[in-house]
Design a protein that fits this description.
It holds the Pfam family Pollen_Ole_e_1. The protein is α+β, with helices and mostly antiparallel strands. It is built from 2 helices and 9 strands, in the order H-E-E-E-E-E-E-E-E-E-H. Helix content is about 20%, strand content about 30%. Strands 1, 2, 5, 8 and 9 form a 5-stranded mixed sheet that branches. A 4-stranded antiparallel sheet has the order 4-3-6-7, with no helix packed on it. The structure holds 2-acetamido-2-deoxy-beta-D-glucopyranose. 2-acetamido-2-deoxy-beta-D-glucopyranose binds next to loops.
Length: about 170
């Protein structure tokens, strides 16, 4: 009998250890969100052969819940020497809209955030939940780009070419 009680106590101790470990785990990163930041030298809203990766650019990931101004999660990060950021995100963000936006450029010659004036404001929606069939903890976001103030010289020819190609469709 004594040994059965002892076994039970051990079992309960083991269970509470597991639940403690579970609690500790919930503050660890659940997702890694990675993506690139470019300088888009032709002031288009897509990445092309002239776009240059930008090290040291600041980005922000923000999740919004239901209701006006309901920011449920926010984290900032910076691109490495390859122009790639990697954000460690805590928690599961089902029922929230999460997106990455540009915060600060590292290049004074390329620090404009496009808007409807010349291109669509870049943002990068991302799904951060394990409950919708997407597996894996690393999520890759669409690239983001600051725009150059001055149109780079090879762009004129390039944009003409694109216009011709889209006329063909
Ligand atoms: C904020 O959004 C979360 C997730 O959608 C929701 O559970 C919560 O009720 C919202 N809070 C407010 C104040 O609307």
């Amino acid at each position: 009998m004594a040994s059965l009680t002892q076994t039970r106590i051990l079992f309960i101790a083991a269970l509470s250890f597991v639940s403690l470990a579970g609690t500790a785990n919930s503050s660890a990163p659940q997702f890694y969100v990675e993506g690139e930041v470019y300088c888009e030298v032709c002031r288009t809203d897509f990445i092309n052969k002239f776009s240059e990766l930008m090290p040291g650019a600041k980005v922000k990931l923000e999740c919004k819940g239901e209701g006006e101004g309901n920011i449920t999660y926010s984290i900032e990060g910076e691109t490495n020497e390859k122009g790639l950021y990697n954000l460690a995100v805590e928690g599961d963000h089902e029922d929230e809209e999460c997106e990455i936006t540009l915060v600060k450029s590292s290049r004074p010659d390329c620090d404009e955030v496009p808007d409807e004036g010349f291109a669509v404001t870049p943002n990068s929606r991302i799904t951060l939940t394990q409950h919708n069939g997407v597996h894996g903890i690393t999520r890759h976001a669409n690239p983001l780009a600051f725009a150059k103030k001055e149109f780079a010289p090879p762009c004129a020819e390039f944009l003409k070419q694109i216009a011709v190609d889209s006329d063909d469709d």
